[in-house]
Amino acid sequence: MNLHALRLFTKVAEQNSVSKAAQTLRISQPAVTIQIRNLERELGLILLESKGRGIALTQNGAFLFKQAQRLFDLELDIENKVAQLKSTGNEELQIASTHVPSHFLLPKWLAHFKQVQPTTHIHLKTANSQQVIEELLHYQADLAFIVKEDGHHPDITYQFLMNLDYWFIVPDQHPLAGQTVALAELMQQPFVSREDGSSTKEFLNALCKVHKIPPPKVGLQLDGINESIHAIAAGYGTMLAPSIAASSFLQQRQVARVFIKDMDIQRPIYLCTRKNEQHHSPSFHSFLHIINESI
Fold it and tell me: Which intervals hold domain HTH lysR-type (predicted)?
């Protein structure tokens, strides 16, 4: 495949315009058009189609654009890692994680790792599960940690690490504190919800769907676990929270559990890597060894 033509196609797809891409790349519009037509002939696929006064990606074009982005993200990742080695002689490990592993598991693992590999530079980015997988797919992370039951991406390898207990919690003085109720009754309470893309929000909606009850009414939407639990402790709403995050609030009588009859909730934590990627840095393998020894 002609990678130069693929790079031009990617720029056209990003800007949704041949003329804008040509202007950005400082080459003529006909030259860009010729390269893309040659790429289409090489692949035997139509990548672009006219739409009004502009262009649009075909279904095949959208697929190729997504794959090309990952290819050029890999190229940038290699360049960055080489630059890091040249400037400092040290390796860099990029980690993406959802909130629960990032706040409650990774600090201990990373502290242990830095004792073994003190010169490796670590960058940890915390985001929701959807964003974390995108980070991994686009080579902006070397490995990732998520809490998610299903919807696994076909290009990702998921290594199960452990299950975490999840609790429904309310303010300590709430009428349902310590009570056992039906799920439908609890769903009538105002909920503190996570943002779109959060696996906890997806899980709660799926739980309601399985039990054929309406999803909870969202009274407050926050982006993080700690912020959400603090809102409950301050006296508002209910939420589904990991026990590892809520237990200290429970011990201090700031929140209380609500029990659902015949229901205990556990959710899996996975370590994620890109599928079919055979070669990893020594730091990568050292970090995985520390994790596997810890669980």
Answer: 1-58
